[in-house]
Amino acid sequence: MTKAAVKHKVVIDVEMCKGCGLCIAYCPKKVLVESEHLNKTGYHFAEPCDLDQCTGCLICTLVCPEVVIEVYDE
């Protein structure tokens, strides 16, 4: 019996993100990218682009200095 692949959901508080890019740089699967849009404070925030590749490693949550990223199992 094979175990079903667990899907993950990355939630970023885009209004609190300061666009430092650490989560993007450290994501081993390159799931996160810099948004083309600006948040209310004028930063290009991080956003997920390919959640099918997310392994739920939580590195993005650990390196985020603003603590604005959460990862959930779906």
Secondary-structure element sequence? EHEEHE
Rg calculated over all Cα atoms: 13 Å
Task: Kindly name the structural category.
Answer: alpha+beta
Strand order of the largest sheet: 1-4
Number of domains: 1
Mean pLDDT: 94
CATH architecture: 2-Layer Sandwich
Distance between the termini: 20 Å
Q: What shape does the CA trace take?
A: elongated
Percent in strands: 25-35%
The poorly predicted ranges are none
Question: Fraction of residues in helices?
Answer: 10-25%
Q: Count all strands and give the number.
A: 4
Care to describe what's here?
By secondary structure, the protein is an alpha+beta fold. It has a single domain, classed as 2-Layer Sandwich (Alpha-Beta Plaits). Helices cover 14% and strands 30% of the residues. The protein is built from two helices and four strands, in the order E-H-E-E-H-E. The protein has helices at residues 22-26, 59-63; strands at 8-12, 32-38, 44-48, 69-73.
How would you summarize the topology of this molecule?
Elements: E1 8-12, H1 22-26, E2 32-38, E3 44-48, H2 59-63, E4 69-73
Antiparallel strand pairs: 1-4, 2-3
Brief characterization of the structure:
The protein contains 2 helices and 4 strands, in the order E-H-E-E-H-E.
Offer a few descriptive terms.
single chain, 74 residues, alpha+beta, Alpha-Beta Plaits, two-stranded antiparallel sheet, 2 helices, 30% strand, elongated
